[in-house]
Amino acid sequence: KMDDDDDIPQLSSHTLAALQEFYLEQQQREGMKTSQGFNQYSVGSIEEDWQLSQFWYSDETALCLAKEAVLAAGKGGRIACVSAPSVYQKLKEQDGEDFSVCILEYDRRFSVYGEEFIFYDYNHPLDLPENLLPHSFDIVIADPPYLSEECLQKTAETIKYLTKGKILLCTGAVMEEQAAKHLGVKMCKFIPKHSRNLANEFRCYVNYASGLD
Questions:
Q1: Furthest C-alpha separation in the chain
Q2: Which terminus of the chain, N or C, has fewer Cβ atoms within 10 Å?
């Protein structure tokens, strides 16, 4: 006899655990009651995990980068956020805009965002799902988690695989030469800010005529 609940879709245990952890964190956040119409996409809805070298952008920076991505991607464009979840969250807040977005991220807490979440480990830059076709994104926004040439070089492989051409990279000012070498990107005038001040000066780099200058 078949089990009655066979046809009920089951969440995998890791998704369930991630969801439970996510909701628990939500409840613990001061004054964040559902009655206040909590927005799951707001920047900071998932807390930074410093062990994963996570630092969220300030609201203004996330919004500025999201708007730049939408403009650069064009109507019906596809945007990939590689290790840049706060930009992804801002993009999701742009209701009714005509674009689609994916988030490639090592932190599985972001799996609460469903099918748009793709687990990503920069140590395996091309270990990507088959449905993520090469050169299928109009722009890739990336913020490699570590300021090392190795991390940038490996993340660059992913970026080059995903993008049709346009790249928006956020990383330390010290990475300027390596960014040019591995991705052919140049520093913009726009200076990204984080919600907590970082010791390292951060900059944005692009390989196209952007609105960030």
A1: 67
A2: N
User: Of the given ranges (48-52, 94-98, 113-117), which has the lowest mean pLDDT?
Assistant: 48-52
For residue 94, being part of any structural domain is answered with yes
CA distance 30 to 149: 39
Number of domains the chain contains: 1
First to last CA, the chain: 66
Output the domain CATH number for residue 157: 3.40.50.150
Is the model's pTM score more than 0.85? no
Task: Give the residue from 202, 198, 200 showing the smallest Cα distance to 187.
Answer: 202
Instruction: State the amino acid at position 149 in one-letter form.
Output: E
Contact predicate 126/161, CB 8 Å: yes
